[in-house]
Amino acid sequence: MARFVFVLLFLMSANQIFAQNSNPTQFANYITETDLHRHLAVLTSDSLEGRETGSDGLKKASNYIIHQLNEMGAKPVGDNGFFQTIEFVKQEWDTIRLKSDNSSFRHLMEYYAIPGNNPKVTISAEEIYFGGYGIDNEVYSDYKKHDFSGKVLLVFADEPRLDDTLFLFSGKNKPAPFSSIDAKLKAAASHGVKTLLIIDPNFLVNTNELRKTIFSNRLSLPSDDFKTTNILPHLFLSTESVKKLVGNHLDSIIARREMIQQERKYNDYQMPMNLFIKMVPKVTRTVAGNVVGMIEGSDKILKSEIVVASAHYDHLGKRGDSDIFHGADDDGSGSVSVLEIMESMSKAKKAGVGPKRSVVGIWFCGEEKGLLGSRYYVNHPLVSLEKTIADVNIDMVGRIDSQHLDKKEYVYSIGSGKISKDLYDLNEAVNTKYSNLTLDYTYDDEKDPNRFYYRSDHYNFAEKGIPIVFFFNGVHPDYHRVTDTIEKIDFPVLTKRAKHAFYLIWEIANKLDRLK
Questions:
Q1: Is 16 inside any structural domain?
Q2: Last residue of some domain: 281, 311, 338?
Q3: How far apart are CA 330 and CA 48, in angstroms?
Q4: Which range marks the domain in which residue 113 is found?
Q5: Which residues of 465-481 are buried (b: 16+ CB within 10 A; e: fewer)?
Q6: pLDDT tens, 268-327?
């Protein structure tokens, strides 16, 4: 018995010594070139067909990541195991036409309409009515003493102005909420308007953005009240197309707009014409999602706070029968880095010396569609954003850009000091102590035309006031090309960068105080 007690005490003492002497290096060393290559070979395989959001290939990628999380013993955080389900919307036009008398109008050149916000309709009318600004509020109403039930109504966007910078009703440089497009549509619907034609002063900017959505594979997130039924038909027109539409009536419309400006009222005005509108929207929905797993913290109190390690696991998919955009660097490199970071945190936890705070790995979908997966997450967080103390985002860390060919051991560090100087200082200290990379802050310059700070998933956390850092290798000739393949990845440099992110997350998770 005495010998047993001695052995037991020896083992307990050894375990305590191990815990006291443990340091993150032994766990960072679990991040290896071999494991990074093994994971990346799966994510960039032909069978995944470029991992486009909504595709079977992305589903295979999520299944692989989930399998790895299960194997390491991570805790599922999603609404369906490790999966956070997101329903995306793709909006297209099957048919869109606008004609008046003998004139035809070109969509996205002279007018535009958003497919997801319009019902399927065919409208014929013999006149258009001028409806001021389409506002209906106790402060001012364009519907007072006017009956527009069953009519096609032409209105100005926004609200009247006091001068070039201030709006009349809000008194500010932006219009009042009751002058928004949504408010105008609700007002028109409540007064029985058949169709709303809106004169858009920002027509060129808005059509340029809409072209990206309609003529590409971009998806969007439906708003919580997104529906394609019971929506009032509405179109947006440029100033030039309004002149073409109303012809000689333009002076009368301008006179009534000035009357609203001066007297806050206007007289009825009807414009006879043969108007034809046909809209057949094609709105399809597809399900994809973020993958979210947690290595729970060791401290009973601090484990309720989390540090996020993030990357996006989607890419551009496949074009035609053979052109696969493998996305080895973008962002296969970040995705496998986060996998290895989570594996190393798991090994530390199993050794009894895991980080005090919890570490949450998130693999976002929809980044290539406009940072959609991360935007959805911050608006539907699986862990309270108040408990989220930082996001370390890793997007493209496997290559060398042309500025660093003679000194490969670098990484661009973006945004670390924009919200928290603590994070900037800690990043520097970690690099000095462990990583010895060159931290390049070139892209932190607000004047830099690339604006990378706004172009990856960390930005949605930053908008919520959460400290972030974005690690990046810079662009290269294979960016968004089918040639972004695994054999071009520099695995020794990728390993050093992944280890640096691990060390930083480790230090954030073990700080006594939150980042200020």
A1: no
A2: 281
A3: 14
A4: 91-281
A5: ebbbbbbbbbbbebeee
A6: 999 999 999 999 998 888 999 999 999 999 999 999 999 999 999 999 999 888 899 999
